[in-house]
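Researcher: Sequence of Wax synthase domain-containing protein follows. Predict its structure.
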Amino acid sequence: MIDTTALFSSPLFEQCIIVPPSFRSWIYAISVHGVCSLIGLIIGILLYSSKPTTEKKLSTCWTALGVGALSAISVHIGRSFIESYSPCSEIKFAGPWLASTFGFATFFKSLNVAFHMYPPGADTTLKTWLIWFISLPEPKFDKEKLGKINRKEFINNILDFIIKILVLFITLSILLQFPSPGSTIIEKVSASSPGNDNWDDVIDNQWLLITHIDGFFHLWLLYLFVSFCLDFSAMTNSIAFGGIRMELGFCHPLSKSRSYKECWGSRWNKPVNELLKRTIYIPSRKNGYNQSISAVFTFFGSGLLHEYNFSIHNKNNYHPGEVTVFFLLMGLIMIGESWVWNRCVPNGFKPL
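Model: Prediction complete. Tokens:
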């Protein structure tokens, strides 16, 4: 057992102070987002002017694929330029992360345009088209028109957003105070606690448990941070565009999912899920591939998407190929899980 007295009375806890983002940091993040949105508007106008028709479908495909690939490549090349304007090293990843998200979203939406896979009603007017093209999450369409959010739904979204911020701060506080095996700060704490056999036992014998707990909180931190960004974007876009209804970013994947299929299929990162579904899964099914093969293709595409994203904003810890293997493994686990449930569990007990 871990001696929690030694763990929580260590000098480690005396060094943990949460510093909120500065005003310059907010200006930095908003500026990167604003520049990306402006570029997205230009690309959106270009694609709207060359929407697929029977006569020029091929040229439209090349146009869409070209601008999508160009935007992604440009973001990748411009990573150092974006980082150089970061006001502090702690949030240097924010600019490249926002830009890389813009890069892959523009690429996939350009594919949607090329193969006419965008939501019905998105091309009704140029305004509607641009709202769809630059928004992540995307707006909801009701009978090919932009849906309107009601007051109760908007208030519930705000309350949910506030709760996520509070849990995000709590999770971050725990992570800042909890040691990671092999970290520099643990070495410093060990050096500052000579002769403390209890603390040495924690480091030497309990590293595996510490790693799992640390990973658990990091998973929550990842979910809460990305969910915070998507919810913030959805609420600001809803207000800016006259109270339109936006798609959810996440749907409680870590607290309400009862299976891998439910988590990955309908709860985790729904905007990216929708892009991959339109671009890879549905075309694969239409071309005769079964659900399992189409799912593997989709998870492979998700792996490549994240390879691009991680290589830009997390280059120091990025190892090529690892994230693709992870997503392929998740796809295979999901397929295996479905096989077991379909053959071994009575219908009344299936959570899928």
